[in-house]
């Protein structure tokens, strides 16, 4: 694999090699790499995994030739990734022979721009290489070099698709002329005949100009007025063209232009081709088809930038209540620009500008401007809330009638006309649904199939709706979506109807009876989706994270939720708590139950030690029949192997054969174990305190003692919230019978 390294401003061709060998998984870099290049192993690993590729779980050696040339920077990331995947057998690298690969990798698999791509491409051409793959952001710079074919990629996934299936790479973007910046013109100056005459004479004869006057006469400002005129930068916004001249885009633009003429301002020179498409051909900044609820509107931000940079001495807009739908929060952005303040510190850092509205708003009216602006912004926010409530009511009516409320259909479904011809509905997309069912079966199969294996299978067999293809995160999100059960998914809202800011996950819609609304056909059953969610919980990359690891908390999976019966796990909120693992308002537990961990553990430990704490503890002693004979054979075999390491003789070889035969015969015999319980001389309470750090041992005792531990909801004492039942083994069986008798007499 070819790449280029820079030494100063000179480029040198570098060959990237990768080798996989047996040993503990590690990545070793050689060839005089610097710190940034040494860190490439972490970047490349994350990029490869997040691009849906398999990371080889072996010892990896990456060598950069020539070894005597110092290498630095992150331009080798893509070359290292391609060489590594080729060495692992994941990619056929014949398509990349004679191709220089340059680019830095992000953790998500994106290809970032690098510095010095021009001398790198020149060096590759001098070395006889005529093809190069560079980041998309550097493609225009690399294409300047004649005689070399430059292609661009924006993700590692695109490069992999090109090597595997010949998918097309990107061409360098076409050159665009730089935006024209306005030049000062004396023709824009109104009046000041004497000053203009002095400037013209000085310019014609190459003379200096000196201005005299008492302090405060305004010589610097007069000079500025002679060189530039006062400009107004306009802005209008319309979410949707209604056809009414009172709210049309053309009508608003005409009002702003007339307002600028009325106040004696010239319209600020419009930005060049870098401005949004909606601004092209317009005399003001325009956000067409963008809601005022969106804060980062392109033309809106460019309009504010005109005020901050001094390109305009006034900001003009149509009615202020249409400027924003975010209320005072977004209105504060405009106020900071008008008053020349830094939004972080509140200090004045640039000249204030004038704010004008075609509805009569003027920031020079100090007595009423701020108050009126805030009121108008809040009116806009109230209008947004009213429209949002109306849309929610419309969606609720559509869902109640079994209609599709709009938006993108979940993967596996397609939008079709409703059976009665009124509105739209969802139907199964056969190809996508079959792929989802197969992927769920592969996830639930206990044959060692990893999430990465399923991701690669989906990439090869199922069409992805995103151009970037399938990744582990997108596949996991797809397979754990309750929409696959035919449920209507909505975002959680509070009592006022506002979306919860701390929860971006969707949840199934419930009817008045608390049942899940499922108007669409099912792709997966609710039990299958829940099983997939359980199987994928904590799974990252290949094997499940933490597989085989003992729980770190005493009651993990011992207590169950009274609402859904699922085992409760630990969760760190303000305090350590045991929570029901069901999602909020999910299919099986609309109300999650929780309890403070310290209180629950102290209560149950007190019950256990109160029952058996003073009893003498016994420990099992296991003896295996024939165990001594096996130990003798293994010991003799080890002695013979040590002797063979010093000298090889026919007698030792024959002895090894006999011992191995005897060991195999003993291994084939059934193992007979005998367990005998012997007193330890310590009580259960003493042993419990002695083994305070052995959480697994303590959990085993509690699991043996309690047959049921159920947590009830409410603000009751812990003794009333935890419902327990002793197990059927002694001495707990006697305690269980006594507890039942007491409850019967008490009842």
Automatic annotation (TrEMBL):
GO molecular-function terms, A-Z: ATP binding; DNA binding; DNA strand exchange activity
PROSITE patterns, alphabetized: RECOMBINASE_DNA_BIND
InterPro entries, A to Z: DNA_bind_recomb_sf, DNA_bind_recombinase_dom, Mg_chelatse_chII-like_cat_dom, Resolv_N, Resolvase-like_N_sf, Ribosomal_Su5_D2-typ_SF, Ribsml_uS5_D2-typ_fold_subgr, SSR_resolvase
Top-level lineage group: Bacteria
Record bears the keyword Thylakoid: no
Domain Recombinase: 410-542
A Pfam family matched in the record: Mg_chelatase
Alphabetical UniProt keywords: DNA recombination, DNA-binding
Keyword presence, DNA-binding: yes
PANTHER family according to UniProt: DNA-INVERTASE FROM LAMBDOID PROPHAGE, SERINE RECOMBINASE PINE-RELATED
Name of the protein this chain belongs to: Resolvase-like protein
Species this protein is from: Asanoa ferruginea
């Amino acid at each position: 694999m070819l790449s280029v390294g820079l030494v100063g401003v000179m480029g040198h061709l570098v060959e990237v090699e990768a080798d996989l060998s047996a040993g503990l998984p590690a990545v070793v870099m050689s060839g005089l790499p610097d710190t940034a290049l040494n860190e490439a192993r972490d970047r490349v690993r994350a990029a490869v995994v997040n691009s849906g590729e398999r990371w080889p779980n072996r010892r990896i050696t990456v060598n950069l030739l020539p070894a005597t040339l110092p290498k630095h920077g992150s331009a080798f990331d893509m070359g290292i990734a391609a060489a590594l995947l080729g060495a692992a057998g994941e990619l056929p690298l014949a398509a990349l022979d004679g191709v220089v690969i340059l680019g830095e990798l992000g953790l998500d698999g994106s290809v970032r721009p690098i510095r010095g791509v021009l001398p790198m491409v020149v060096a590759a051409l001098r070395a006889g290489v005529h093809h190069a793959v560079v980041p998309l952001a550097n493609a225009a710079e690399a294409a300047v070099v004649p005689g070399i074919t430059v292609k661009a990629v924006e993700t590692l996934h695109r490069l992999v698709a090109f090597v595997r299936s010949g998918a097309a790479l990107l061409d360098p973007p076409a050159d665009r002329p730089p935006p024209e910046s306005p030049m000062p013109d004396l023709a824009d100056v109104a009046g000041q005949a004497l000053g203009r005459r002095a400037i013209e004479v000085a310019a014609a004869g190459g003379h200096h100009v000196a201005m005299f006057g008492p302090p405060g006469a305004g010589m610097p400002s007069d000079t500025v007025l002679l060189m530039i005129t006062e400009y107004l930068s306009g802005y209008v916004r319309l979410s949707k063209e209604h056809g009414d001249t009172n709210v049309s885009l053309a009508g608003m633009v005409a009002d702003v232009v007339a307002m600028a003429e009325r106040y004696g301002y010239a319209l600020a020179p419009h930005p060049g081709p870098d401005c949004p498409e909606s601004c092209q051909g317009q005399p003001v900044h325009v956000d067409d088809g963008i809601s005022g609820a969106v804060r980062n509107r392109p033309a809106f931000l460019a309009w504010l930038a005109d005020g901050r940079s001094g390109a305009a001495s006034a900001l003009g807009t149509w009615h202020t209540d249409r400027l924003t739908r975010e209320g005072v929060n977004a209105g504060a952005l405009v106020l900071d620009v008008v008053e020349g303040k830094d939004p972080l510190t509140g200090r004045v850092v640039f000249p204030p500008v004038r704010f004008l509205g075609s509805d009569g708003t003027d920031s020079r009216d100090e007595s009423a401007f701020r108050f009126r602006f805030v009121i108008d912004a809040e009116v806009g926010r109230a209008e947004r809330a009213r429209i949002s409530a109306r849309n929610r009511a419309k969606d609720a009516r559509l869902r109640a009638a079994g209609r599709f409320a709009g938006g993108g259909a979940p993967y596996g479904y397609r939008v079709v006309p409703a059976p009665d011809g009124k509105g739209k509905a969802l139907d199964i997309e056969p190809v996508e649904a079959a792929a989802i069912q197969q992927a769920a079966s592969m996830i639930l199969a206990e044959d060692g199939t990893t999430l990465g294996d399923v991701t690669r299978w989906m990439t090869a067999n199922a069409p992805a709706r995103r151009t970037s293809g399938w990744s582990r995160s997108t596949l996991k999100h797809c397979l754990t979506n309750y929409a696959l059960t035919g449920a209507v998914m909505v975002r959680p809202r509070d009592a006022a109807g506002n979306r919860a800011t701390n929860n971006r996950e969707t949840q199934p819609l419930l009817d008045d009876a608390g049942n899940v609304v499922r108007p669409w056909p099912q792709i997966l059953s609710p039990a299958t989706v829940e099983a997939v969610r359980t199987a994928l919980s904590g799974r990252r990359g290949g094997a499940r994270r933490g597989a085989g690891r003992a729980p770190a908390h005493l009651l993990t999976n011992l207590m169950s939720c009274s609402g859904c019966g699922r085992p409760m796990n630990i969760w760190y909120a303000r305090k350590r708590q045991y929570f029901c693992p069901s999602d909020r308002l999910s299919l099986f537990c609309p109300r999650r139950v929780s309890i403070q961990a310290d209180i629950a553990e102290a209560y149950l430990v007190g019950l256990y030690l109160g029952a058996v704490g003073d009893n003498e503890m016994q420990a099992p002693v296991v003896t295996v029949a024939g165990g001594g004979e096996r130990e003798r054979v293994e010991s003799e075999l080890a002695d013979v192997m040590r002797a063979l390491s010093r000298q090889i003789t026919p007698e030792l070889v024959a002895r090894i054969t006999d011992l191995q035969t005897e060991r195999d015969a003993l291994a084939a015999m059934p193992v007979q174990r005998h367990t005998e319980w012997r007193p330890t001389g310590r009580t259960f309470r003493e042993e419990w305190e002695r083994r305070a750090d052995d959480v697994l041992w303590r959990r085993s005792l509690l699991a043996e003692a309690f047959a049921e531990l159920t947590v009830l909801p409410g603000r009751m004492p812990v003794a009333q919230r935890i419902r327990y039942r002793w197990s059927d083994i002694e001495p707990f069986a006697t305690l269980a019978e006594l507890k039942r008798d007491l409850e019967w007499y008490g009842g």
